[in-house]
Prior knowledge:
- By secondary structure, the chain is α+β, with helices and mostly antiparallel strands.
- The chain is built from 5 helices and 5 strands.
- A hairpin with an 8-residue loop joins β3 and β4.
- α3 packs across α5 and α4 runs antiparallel to α5.
- The protein is globular and about 40 Å long.
- The chain starts with 13 loop residues before the first helix and ends with a helix.
Amino acid sequence: MVYRVKIRNYDPKLPLYFSIEKKRLLKMLGKNARIIHIGSSSVPGLGGKNFIDILVLTNTKRDAVRLIKKIEKCGYVFDESSGDKFRCFFKRISKIENKKVRYHLHLMWKTSKKYQDYLILKEFLISHPEEAKKYFEIKKRLASITKDNREYGRLKSKYVEKLLRKAKKMIKRCRINC
């Protein structure tokens, strides 16, 4: 689906909505999956599209494939066009407190290692609020100059890669100097 991106200020209720959804998912998925809040809504103060990104992490791709039907039973819609060789992608919309809440679920497996990028970026932005603020300003600017979510995502990805390189460089430096 193609749409115009709207960037909003941080909603402090999003972590609560994530917690509610995590409990619901744990009941359905069981103990084989780790469920982690990722994305902009997981970084206090960082505005964005105000979607709640959820990482469901399994040990192997085979374990992940076994969860697909269970995730769909939780009301998520598999979005084959948004996934890649490192993840399966799902969407869900629910209503909490008369408010539409959008979830993006990223089903990934530890053997892919790509999941680590989500966690590294999250921790980097939490521990560097000035970078999070700059990232928010860039997202607002990109949303104002792009015509749709695909163009926005492509341009935002370039900046995220830059942030990720910076975060990994800091981790590497810390391992050497700490």
